[in-house]
Amino acid sequence: FTMETELRKALSKEEFELHYQPQKNLKTGKIVGMEALLRWKHPVKGYIPPLDFISLAEKTGLIIEIGDWVLEEACRQNKYWQDQGFEPVIVSVNMSAKQFHQNGLVEKLEKVLMETGLDPEFLELEITESISMTNEKNILTTMQQLRNLGVFVSIDDFGTGYSSLKYLSLFPITKLKIDKMFMDDTQKQNPAIVKSIIHMSHSLDMKVIAEGVETMEQLNFLENEKCDEMQGFYFSKPLPPEQLSKLLVTLR
Ligand code: G
Ligand code: G
Ligand code: MN
Ligand code: NA
After folding, report:
1. pTM
2. Is the pLDDT confidence value at 1 over 70?
3. CATH code (residue 113)
């Protein structure tokens, strides 16, 4: 089989799973969000990481169907956790440029939220800077519609792409996610970029989260700099939903 055929089969055979990585508020110490991360559980090859199939999914257009599944599953799971009585958190979903630009995205989201019963304020879409340069008008319109719906929009891997700073004030973006690469810099005593992104986010009325936090030193640094949230192995790796439920129980 070609990889494309296998991807199609994976969709129909329900071989995809979402794992969730918790995000922690640094002031309260509480979990305030979870990033949904796609996993392909191949019957023979085992877990295949998204980096090995997302770009093919984008090229073939299959990312739209896969993305539909991800959105619905993430909203369903988050609503389920709320129904279990856990403190409500935001689930964030990664979105490729192709998905963001698809016709009817906003209507699709409205439908998924209605069908799963998840309140829009508990859904965040993570987009990367790769979408920011083209179709300025369309992007602005879509983002405004998403915000009107109540859904949050964050910029993933911030600082690694080529977004002009102009877009940060032009678009209704609610959060910047500092790429892991800059957290590595804080270990090398070169924290200028992280500091600057935190301060800029707050000046522009956005929240800011640091990704790839692996050490206590990094965590202390972020607390000192008043970063809002953290995500990383130091707190938790991405977990299957059952394991995350157990973690939530211990924190209740
Ligand atoms: O755990 P990690 O290997 O999960 O994820 C690697 C990358 O794959 C992430 O940076 C993310 O951008 C991408 N990714 C993970 N899940 C999804 C998804 O559901 N949709 C899209 N478009 N990308 C995803
Ligand atoms: O969408 P995005 O590129 O932000 O996806 C996050 C990626 O980073 C996922 O592949 C996830 O497994 C990975 N990740 C999350 N926390 C850590 C961490 O603390 N260290 C490392 N090396 N990777 C992490
Ligand atoms: Mn992400
Ligand atoms: Na990232």
Report:
1. 0.96
2. no
3. 3.20.20.450
ipTM of the complex: 0.97
Distance of alpha carbon 220 from alpha carbon 241, whole angstroms: 28
Residues having C-beta closer than 5 Å to ion ligand 4: 156-157, 211
Ligand 2 probe mutation, 17, 19, 21, most atoms within 8 A of CB: 21
Ligand closest to Cα of 36 equals: 1
Which ligand has the shortest distance to the CA of 51?
1
Whether 117 and 79 have beta carbons less than 8 Å apart is answered as yes
Q: 211 in ligand 2 pocket by Cβ < 6 Å?
A: yes
Q: Provide the strand spans (E) within the chain.
A: 16-25, 31-42, 46-48, 90-94, 123-128, 152-158, 175-178, 207-210, 229-230
Total of domains in the chain: 1
The pLDDT mean for the chain works out to 94
Host domain of residue 215? 3-251
